[in-house]
Amino acid sequence: MYLKDSKIIVIKIGSTLLIDQNKKIRKIWLSEFAKDIRELIKKDKKIIIVSSGAIAMGCKKLNLNKKNLKIDKSQAVASIGQIELMNLFSEIFVKQKINISQILLTLEDTEQRRRSLNAKRTFDNLFQLGFVPIVNENDTTATTEIKYGDNDRLASRVAQISGADSLILLSDVDGLYTQNPKIYKNAKLLKEIKNIDKDIEKIATKSISEHGTGGMKTKIDAAKICQLSGCQMAIANGLLMRPIKKILKDNNCTWFLPKISKLDARKKWIISSISPKGEVVIDDGAKKALSNGKSLLAAGITKVSGKFKKGDHIKVLNKKNFECARGLSSFSSDEILRIMGCHSKEIEKILGYVSKSEVIHKDDMVEI
Ligand SMILES: Nc1ncnc2c1ncn2[C@@H]1O[C@H](COP(=O)(O)OP(=O)(O)O)[C@@H](O)[C@H]1O
Ligand SMILES: N[C@@H](CCC(=O)OP(=O)(O)O)C(=O)O
């Protein structure tokens, strides 16, 4: 599918792209990149940018060297640099009429299910409002043990949470090479990777630049997360002007292909929920419909138990009280109490507002 057909795209920008070796901000580059984003938005794509650079921008302002910073100092530097970073985006993106917002995440925000669902909701709402979220790690509060430390893995979690089709890690090289191309001039670019084996892990080494953090190692970790989320991931050269246009035109980068589809990844996540919040019992007609791959409608529900909210994981039981499916409810338990046994057409009248017609949509449900 690659980029052309992706609806939700996460793009990660490394610090090296925003600040050059002489500590100069690469404004022209960012302006060109903003044009790329404008083009994608025009094609109705939803974009999330994950941008590094808080520490690099803070170091620039304070005239410090990133390599010698201790963790507590770097947290203060990040807090100073994050404003600089967002001011930079704001100044440049406004010229392309792109609305931006800021989201600062910690490891806990992406690893705890409820918090990650909240983050997903915020992304969805920002898309609806027509804003491009710009994400960074909340470096000011994250300490070593609870820190991503690199935005490559953070970006892959953001891609997973937002249900992205593609993640692009823009770096200072064309992609993953057989050896570090900054050291070995005859290294060869690998264009497509289906399986991340030991050989791939071995060639992905650290960065040699002052501002880069994880090198290829953390990009491979990110690729592994993407492969299991049904998201394709590219490492591409961001130093070029209009880097996204270049990918669309030449595709001269490294693509990591997902191991499962996005739908399967979602279903795997649904089935692996450890604590469903409630249950609904269904009649034989509804059971038959589920076995035929249909959604669960209110008409087939005979009982509801537990207290749950819209979007929560629930169990579906047959009339003998055996679990036959699991899914994400489109209604709260209180709402289901009022609409169960009713025809879908009646729901709006009963609840007094417009809502979905399925209690669990087939894409949000796994049969057991
Ligand atoms: N096998 C490899 N192929 C490409 N780059 C590699 C490889 N091994 C190590 N690298 C290093 O990874 C760097 C990119 O990562 P990094 O500096 O962390 O950038 P970013 O800011 O984009 O995260 C390259 O500049 C290169 O020095
Ligand atoms: N959150 C940090 C980013 C750390 C990071 O991943 O940097 P990079 O390797 O340049 O993408 C910052 O904003 O400085």
Keywords:
single chain; about 375 residues; alpha/beta; Archaeosine Trna-guanine Transglycosylase, Chain: A, domain 4; 2 domains; elongated; binds adenosine-5'-diphosphate; binds ligand VHF
Topology:
Elements: E1 8-13, H1 15-18, H2 27-42, E2 46-51, H3 54-62, H4 71-93, E3 99-105, H5 107-111, H6 113-129, E4 131-137, H7 151-162, E5 166-171, E6 192-193, H8 198-203, H9 215-227, E7 232-237, H10 243-250, E8 254-256, H11 262-271, E9 278-282, H12 284-291, E10 296-297, E11 301-306, E12 313-317, E13 323-328, H13 333-339, H14 347-351, E14 358-360, E15 365-367
Parallel strand pairs: 1-2, 1-5, 2-4, 3-4, 5-7, 6-8, 9-12
Antiparallel strand pairs: 7-8, 9-11, 10-14, 12-13, 13-15
Helix pairs in contact: 2-4, 3-4, 7-9
The chain binds adenosine-5'-diphosphate (ADP) and ligand VHF.
Adenosine-5'-diphosphate (ADP) binds next to helix 1 and helix 9.
EC number: 2.7.2.11
Pathway: Amino-acid biosynthesis; L-proline biosynthesis; L-glutamate 5-semialdehyde from L-glutamate: step 1/2
Function: Catalyzes the transfer of a phosphate group to glutamate to form L-glutamate 5-phosphate.
